[in-house]
Amino acid sequence: EDLITSNSMHSFSETAAQMIGLACGGAIVATLGIGGALLIDFLTFIISALLISSIKIPSTTSSDGQGSDLTVAQFFKDLGEGLNYVRSTRIIVICAVLACLINFLLAPLNVLLPVFAKVNLNLDVVSLSYVFLAEPISMLLASLVVSFITKKIGERWALRAGLFLLASGSILFYFVKSAPGVFVCLSILIFGVPIASAGLHTIMQRNTPADKMGRVSSVMSTLSLAAMPLSTATAGFLGEVIPLPALFALLGSLVAFFTVLFTFNRTFRSNTVLGAAGKLATDT
After folding, report:
1. What is the mean pLDDT of the chain?
2. Cα(18)–Cα(27) distance, integer angstroms
3. Degrees, nearest 5: CA angle 143-194-20
4. pTM confidence score
5. What is the domain partition of the chain in residue ranges?
6. Among the ranges given (9-18, 245-254, 267-276), the one the predictor scored with the smallest mean pLDDT
7. Which of 89, 211, 228, 269 could serve as a FRET partner for 175 with CA atoms 20 to 30 Å apart?
């Protein structure tokens, strides 16, 4: 199996689908109305569900060798095993906490950027729409090259590089004085997202048994999503007392700090981070 290629393909297909949806959304609403757009949305979900249900996934058994029959007691037992695995595996704990912190720090950007563009740069709606084109363009370009980059530098350095790009893009907003500057900073920031995501997911997948993959992924998603409402509320408060350029620089600096703190420690630098599935790189 090639986890890096799989993760990059997933990132590319997801981004491409988002771009197609954004491009077609306005035309669909204008032609069919809101009801027609909702109907098409419903049909795409049904088609996706049918396609997913047709995929044949090899069955896995739990580590204790029990069968696949699921009862209420077995469900809670499996859930407890998954949570215990997350808690007892230090590299998974590091990845979970890091993902939670990064989401907490970067979640407010989509809320703060329009305010920053209007208040600090006096951009109109048209200029702002052009600026935000940086998001899908950078995401798509990064998704195309993330597999090559990750194979060249390894998943650990891919995670570090992606997070440092996120930090750099956020910090550079402090110096922005025009719409092109916002476009460049946003491009740098967004370009790092697929690279960091591919590195993080590959590390987790290499260090998680197949029968616990779903539980570990659900814990990660829960922690990451739980941080977002608190993050947005906190950013709204800080935005009232701190100038937005300084707030962007502060958030980016914290991303860089936590990247160094969590990814340059002895546990993360150990070759065990690469997991039993194979060691693609010997970076430290």
Report:
1. 80
2. 15
3. 50
4. 0.76
5. 72-268
6. 267-276
7. 228
Q: Does 280 score more than 50 pLDDT? A: no
How far apart, in whole angstroms, are the C-alpha atoms of residue 117 and residue 131? 9
* Neighbour-count burial for 143-175, b at 16+ CB within 10 Å, e otherwise: beebbebbbebbbbbbbbbbbbbbbbbbbbbbe
Residue type, 179: A
Percent of the chain at pLDDT > 90 equals: 20
Q: Please compute the mean of the pLDDT values over residues 207-211 and round it to a whole number.
A: 80
**Ramachandran angles phi, psi of 227, nearest 5°:** -75, -20
CATH, domain 72-268, list 1.20.140.10, 1.20.1250.20, 1.25.40.80, 3.30.460.10: 1.20.1250.20
The DSSP code sequence of the chain is --HHHHHHHHHHHHHHHHHHHHHHHHHHHHHHHHHHHHHHHHHHHHHHHHHHHT--------TT---S---HHHHHHHHHHHHHHHHH-HHHHHHHHHHHHHHHHHTTHHHHHHHIIIIIT---HHHHHHHTTHHHHHHHHHHHHHHHHHHHHHHHHHHHHHHHHHHHHHHHGGG--SHHHHHHHHHHHHHHHHHHHHHHHHHHHHTS-GGGHHHHHHHHHHHHHHHHHHHHHHHHHHHHHS-HHHHHHHHHHHHHHHHHHHHSSHHHHSGGGG-TT-------
Please count the other Cβ atoms lying within 10 Å of the Cβ belonging to residue 129: 10
Residue 258, amino acid: F
For residues 225 and 24, give the distance between their C-alpha atoms in angstroms, rounded to a whole number.
28
